[in-house]
Every structure is written in C-alpha cells, then in structure tokens.
Design brief:
Chain lengths: 233, 607
C-alpha cells in the first residue's frame, strides 16, 4: 500500500499520520477498472463458430486435454447475442462474409474478434482464390491475430491470454463503446452484398470511380477509333 | 459383430488380374452403339468418347445390361485448344470391383450443352450442378440446375482456362516475380480496391444484388387445406445454417416443414469454397500436397495418400517397401482418428452434449501426437511424397520409444476406448430409440445416389476400394469389409465401430513389417523437392478414405510441371446428394442426427 496521495486524483485531502498505511486516495476509475476488467477478462464467452480446419483445433483446445475452462472461456455460446468473443477459425469466403458481418453486428458490445490462423489473418494458402476474402480485417476490427496453419491449441491459448491482457489494460473512461461518439468500430458494420463479386458497401465511391474511369476509357477508345477511321480510309 | 461381417472375397486374385470386365464392357458398348461410342484416341487417355445424343442410352445400357451401376465421379475439363468442353464420367461395377469405365462427352465451348444423367443416376445431381457452376455446361433435363458452390449472379465460370481471378499473376507457378529472385510486391497494391475483388468494366451496384440471406426461401407461402377439418395451414420453411452448432461447419439446409415433419430438404453449400481446383491447376504437382491436407481436414494423411498415388500413376515412380507400410499405418490411424471424431459428434448430435465426445478425443490426441512426432504437424500433416513419405518414423513419441508407443496404442488404448464406447452407447436406450429406423437409405438408393464409404456399407453394399481395386499393400493384408443392412443412423454408427476394429486388425499386421524394414529408405527416386514432369495423359486414383471413396482426376500435358485438370471426387460432397431423400418424413430434430451420421467435412464438401 502506498501512503502517497495520487496526484491525478486531484485531491488535497491530508491523511493523518497514523492512517498513512491504511488509506489510499485515488479516483473511482482506478478502483473500478481493475475490478471490472478482472471480471470480464476471466469470463470471456466465445461463440460456437467454426469455419474450417482451425475450428477442429479450437474444439481440441476446448476439450479436456487443453481445457480452456482454466481461463474462464469454456462457455461456448451458440448465439452471438450471448457472446463476447468471435474466433474467426478458418478461411473466410466471399459467400460467407455477409453472414459473419451480420453475426458480428448481433454481438453486444464490448465484443472482441480473434483471427485464428493464416487464412483468417490474410487469406493464407488460399489467398489467390476467387472466392476467398484476403483477411477478415478487411471487414471487421481484429483484436488478436494467432499465426499458424492451423495454430496448435497452445498457440490459440497464447492468443487468448494476449486478449486477456488487452482487456486488462482497458479503461471504462476511454473505451469507445461507452463514449457518446464511439469510433469507427462501434455500431454496425455494413453487411457486404454479393453482386458479380463481393461488394463492400464502404467502397462504393471507389467502385463508382472505377466505373467512371472505365466509361471514359471506352469513349476514348471509341473516339480514337472514329478519328482513326477516316485517316485509314 | 462377426455375424454381420462377411469374409473377404477368396478369389481376390481373380478380381485384380481380371481387368477384362471393363474391356469387355467397352467392347460390347462399341458393338451396340457403333456410331456413338469410340475409343479415346489421345495418347495416355483411356475409356470411350460418347456422342452427346446417345449419352443417356449408352448410360442406361451400361447400368442395366453391363452391371456398371455405380456412377462415381462426374467432372468437367476445358479443352481450350480444341474449343471444346469435356465431361468425364467414371462408372464402376459394384459387384465385381475393378477399375472404371471412363465415359467422355464433348460439347462446344461457346454453347455448351449436354443431356443430364440425373434420370439415370440421381447421384449425378450435385456433380452436374458443380460442372455447370465451374464450366458453364448446360445439362438439358436437369431438375434444378443452379449454381452450387458460388452464388447466382457471379460473373463467369471460374474453372474455364481463360477465366482469371482478381489476384491473377501468371498462368502457372512458380511465378516469375518470385523465383529465383524473390519479390516483396503485395498483390493487393495492384488492385484498385485493395481487396480480392473484380467487377465487370463499368459495373455499378443496382441495389438488387443477390441476397444470400433470403436465397432459397419460398416467395409465396404454400397453403394446405385439410379436408377433414377445413383448416388452412401453411408449410413452414426453416433455415439451418450456415452458422448453426449442429451443421459441422458452414453448411446450410433449407427445410420445409409440415408441422414438425420434414417435407423437403435442400442443402446449400459453397460457404467454404476455397477454390482448391483452380489453385491446384496453377500449382506444380508437388505444391498440391499440402493443399490436399485441407480437403478433409480430419483425415489429412488419407488425402495425401490418394493424391500421391494418382500422381505416381502419371510419373510411374516406384515406392519403397518401408514407405508403403508407413503409408498404411498412417492411413489406418487416420481412419481411427476420424471415426472417433465422427462418433463423438454423432453422439453429441443425439443429445449427449459434449461429455461422450471428450472420452473419444483423449485417445484421438494420442494419434495426433504420433502424427506430430512423425510429420511435424498435428492435424494437417503434409507427410506423403511421390515415391514414399517425407520422413522416417521418429525415434520417440511422448518420451516413449515409437514402436512401444504404437504397440500400446494399437493393443491397449484404442481397443479400450472402443470397448468403453460400445458399453456406453451401443445398447443405450436413448441412442437406439433415436437412431434405429431413422434416416433409412435403401441399398438401391445408396447405389443410385452414389453414396460411398460407411454410408454405402451401412446400406448393405459390401464395397470398399481397398478390396475392389487394391492399392498400396492392402492386397497383402488380412481384413474384413464390415457391412450392415438396415441403412439407418444406428447402422452407420455401428459400422464405424466395426471399421475401427478392422483398422486395428490391419495395424497389428503392419507393426512387424515396420520392425523388419527399419533403416530402409522411405523414399525412392529423385530428390523429393525436384519438380517432376510426368508423361502426358490422364490418371484417376482413388483410396478408401474414412468418409468414402476419395478420387483424384488429373490430366497433364507432356513436360508440363502443372496439372492441366485437377479434380477431387469428394465423398462428403457426393454423400450429401442423398441427404434430402434420407430426411423426408422424419422430424426436424432428426435432420441433425442424420447429417451427423453421414459425417461430412466442409473443407471437402465445398473444396
């Protein structure tokens, strides 16, 4: 126990000498944060959400040998509305990503996303595929990336501990989900749609630009063709 | 168990030597349809080319008169140089065993159309849809020709040779930019969207794009009037998946219900379509081995084995003796690991949430530890190579001498867990009530729907590739092919127990050979990292994977380091064709159990 008054508490209360060893003067956030984070950190409920090979290792991590219950995470919930953590365990495909974004939107805040394995982090071995999204971070904010193809259960546990450390450092005063304006990651992420290819609605301006560019190119080609015609004749 | 399993065919030598059934069948076909059936003239190719007009008649003759009643695989090939698309059918004689009659039908590339064979073999349903999706071959007479792996509105047919993906760099690997110099350019930087997307030139979103959420929902409710009570009710459409705890991955079913009874069930897939075949055709042959791990990720060793066997056919490479025994060891351990997983999940689906599953997984972890010690990876092992295996067996597993570890595993740990499992659920009243008579697939339907593996054998068909067309050293081993006759969920559960017992029997025979061959080379021929160039031609290799017949169809050009066509005949995918049939008339809660009893893995369903 420190006997010094916390300067950030902005208090000018003087503590009598005989109480110096028993009293700490601080502010409410500094008491609340550790207690609040301790509770959240040790009861992270992941969603039952398996995509591909990594999901098998995720299940193995939850099974008796690796025993995720040691970290307070054994309560896998089948609905996003009861979950804190979404483990993206596998390749994200274009056909699947609208569903994933929708599930993410249904999770209550505070919510965390873990990108498990090479595919979820950046496309992995399937990056060049025509139906593969090259990393879930193109759509969702990712808190922890776990490398591996697939990551071993030990690696996944390491990632979960990293997430616990991250939660432990957050403060009620600054986290975006309690602030009025939020940040770019609070609120709903627009659900992508499937046109001739995957359409991220946040990129609609770039798509318009590209389309306009293609149009001007076309007219330019036509014009040159027209202007070239008489010369050739 | 013993009265249920029949002995292995005694006259097995006759089956293997007798390749004539195929030749005589082809000869009789040519005799009967002299104008429509002709030999494939290309060097290194086998089978017959059938005229599109006569395709259905030839197929019916093959099925009804010649005994080739099992259509295993349907695949497309793009013959871009000739301006043609080809569809290749592999048809087997399920009684006699042996290799396939390979039928090919060709059509114009620009206006591709062929008659559908769904009326002859219902098992062609999903496979023809896949060919339509990937190649744009229109199958006349197909009952429900829609895209299957991609979505309606997707631009182009991606497996056509002239179709290029957004992250296209070059036709074939190794890419010039990476080799030999190496490059640090990121492909995202050259894409205007910074993502793996491309749009047709000048395309703008219109607002009525394909909505994956409401796909397959009926537009109008189906009214139904009950004669006796004059009550008008609606059928209810229930969507299960792609995010659903019981669908074993990202699988989706649209179930139409009358009360609680299933009227019809349509599977929707493609949520894990990772373009295995397109990437595989850009890769060199050896680069594909780690990709095959990711097909059926619960039995990666078996996938490796099927692929290397196929390419060895093309390369003509020799496999060393020790490597063959190690391969069988790995394949059978994989089968046990897979079935432990499958049964654990099936019991989970039956309602015994999690606990029985955990019992099975402890022993499975022992097998995974052995895989890790041997190959370096627990799950996706990447262990087999052309001509052998990548590494010899390790000295120690879990601080124990490898042979002692294997001995304990085969004689103690696994038999114990099987006994325990049998005690727990084989006679269990709840398991029996929920699984006996549920999801019945008759023998005729199992064959017609091209079911494979445990699903086929639980319906009374004693067909196993290890006996029907032996590969590796399986013809030297003594084991039975278990068969059960009721074709319901309970039989599919029991047959997996039987198969694990048989696998143990095989493993017991393999152990002494491993001791004998200790110190001998595990790979033959050239150094394994060399890029191999096969002779021109086609090869179809198949193995009995835990889920059923896993086949690889590969064609190659002469002195080309990349496959021209690379197709995977995925047992999980084709077994799903019968799912709708199995579920009809049962309650919606049984759907989950029936799906669990087929044992699918989405990596293989969608590829």
């Amino acid at each position: 126990m420190t006997s010094q008054t916390d300067p950030s508490a902005g208090s000018d209360i003087t503590v009598p000498d005989e109480l110096q060893n028993n009293v700490v003067i601080t502010n409410i956030a500094k008491v609340l944060d550790p207690v609040y984070n301790w509770g959240r950190r040790n009861s992270v409920w992941p969603m039952v959400f398996g995509l591909a090979c990594c999901a098998i290792e995720m299940i193995c991590t939850a099974a008796s040998r690796y025993d995720l219950a040691r970290f307070g995470m054994e309560v896998f919930r089948a609905t996003p509305r009861q979950s804190d953590l979404m483990i993206i365990s596998g390749t994200v495909t274009k056909k699947m990503v609208p569903t994933i974004v929708r599930l993410y939107n249904q999770m209550p805040e505070p919510r965390y996303v873990m990108s498990m394995g090479a595919c979820a982090s950046g496309g992995g071995p399937f990056k060049e595929g025509y139906n593969v999204v090259d990393g879930i971070d193109k759509f969702l904010p990712v808190d922890v990336y776990v490398p591996g193809c697939p990551p071993t259960p030990q690696a996944l546990i390491n990632g979960l501990i990293a997430l616990q450390e991250k939660i432990g450092q957050q403060s009620i005063a600054t986290v975006p989900w309690y602030s009025k304006q939020g940040d770019e990651f609070t609120g709903a992420v627009p659900i992508p749609v499937l046109g001739p290819d995957l359409v991220d609605l946040r990129q609609i301006d770039i798509i318009r630009e590209e389309a306009a560019k293609a149009e001007t190119n076309d007219t330019a080609v036509e014009e040159t063709a027209e202007s070239a015609m008489p010369e050739a004749a | 168990m013993s009265e249920m399993t029949l002995d292995a065919p005694e006259d097995e030598g006759a089956v293997t030597v007798n390749d004539n059934p195929v030749e005589s069948a082809i000869a009789r076909l040519k005799e009967r349809f002299p104008d429509a059936v002709s030999d494939d003239p290309r060097d290194g190719y086998e089978g017959v080319i059938v005229d599109a007009d006569k395709l259905i008649e030839v197929s019916e003759a093959l099925r009804d008169d010649l005994g080739f009643e099992y259509l295993s695989s349907v695949t497309g090939v793009d013959l871009i140089d000739d301006g043609k698309l080809e569809v290749v059918y592999h048809v087997y004689n399920i009684e006699e065993g042996g290799s396939a009659v390979v039928m090919k039908a060709q059509t114009d590339r620009d206006n591709a159309s062929l008659p559908s064979l769904v009326s002859v073999w219902p098992g062609a349903d999903f496979q023809e849809r896949e060919v339509w999706d990937m190649y744009g071959v229109h199958f006349e007479g197909h009952p429900d020709l829609r895209r299957i792996l991609l979505w309606d509105g997707f631009k182009g047919h991606p497996l056509r040779k002239d179709w290029q993906e957004p992250f296209f760099e070059e036709e074939h690997k190794p890419f010039g930019s990476r080799w030999p110099g190496g490059s640090v350019a990121r492909i995202e930087d050259s894409n205007p969207f910074g993502k793996n997307v491309q749009y047709p030139e000048g395309w703008l979103p219109t607002g009525d794009e394909y909505d994956v959420e409401i796909d397959m929902y009926p537009h109008e409710p189906a009214h139904r009037e009950d004669e006796s009570t004059r009550m008008v009710t609606d059928k209810v459409t229930v969507n299960m998946g792609p995010q659903h705890p019981s669908t074993h991955g990202v699988f989706r079913m649209v179930v139409e219900l009358d009360g609680e009874t299933v009227v019809s069930l349509k599977p929707v897939m493609g949520y894990l379509h990772r373009n295995h075949e397109k990437i595989g055709e850009r890769n060199t042959f050896i680069q594909n081995i780690p990709y095959t791990d990711r097909l059926d990720y619960l039995s990666s060793m078996g996938n490796n084995l099927g692929y290397v066997l196929t390419i060895e056919k093309l390369l003509g490479s020799e496999v060393t003796e020790r490597a063959e025994w190690i391969r069988i060891l790995m394949a059978e351990l994989t089968r046990i690991a897979n079935h432990l997983w499958a049964l654990g999940f099936l019991i989970n689906d039956l309602g015994a949430l999690q606990t029985p599953m955990l019992y099975f997984y402890l022993e499975r972890e022992l097998i995974l530890d052995f895989f890790e010690a041997a190959s370096g990876a627990r799950l996706l092992c990447n262990y087999m190579r052309f001509g052998g295996v990548a590494y010899d067996l390790p000295d120690k597993v879990r601080e124990t001498d490898t042979m002692t570890f294997l001995h304990d595993l085969i004689y103690e740990n696994i038999p114990n867990v099987l006994d325990q499992g049998e005690n727990l659920f084989v006679g269990n009243e709840i398991v029996r009530t929920r699984s006996i008579g549920v999801g019945v697939l008759t023998r005729e339907d199992a064959i017609a729907y091209s079911a494979a593996g445990p699903v086929l054998r639980a319906s009374g068909v004693q067909y196993d590739v290890r006996r029907a067309e032996p590969y590796s050293y399986y013809d030297k081993l003594d084991f039975d092919i278990p068969v059960r006759y009721n074709g319901d969920v309970y039989d599919r559960l029991l047959i997996r127990m039987d198969e694990m017992r048989q696998s143990l029997r095989i493993l017991e025979q393999v152990l002494p050979h491993l001791k004998e061959t200790e110190g001998m080379p595990v790979i033959g021929g050239k150094p394994q990292y060399a890029i191999r160039m096969p002779k021109a031609g086609e090869a179809y290799g198949r193995v009995e994977n835990p889920k059923g017949e896993l086949g690889y169809y590969v064609t190659a050009k002469r002195r080309d380091a990349n496959p021209q066509r690379y197709h995977v005949r995925a047992p999980s995918f084709i077994n799903l064709t019968a799912l709708g049939k199995m579920c009809e008339g049962h309650k919606v809660a049984d759907v989950v159990v029936i799906l669990g009893s087929i044992d699918i893995v989405l990596g293989e369903v969608d590829r």
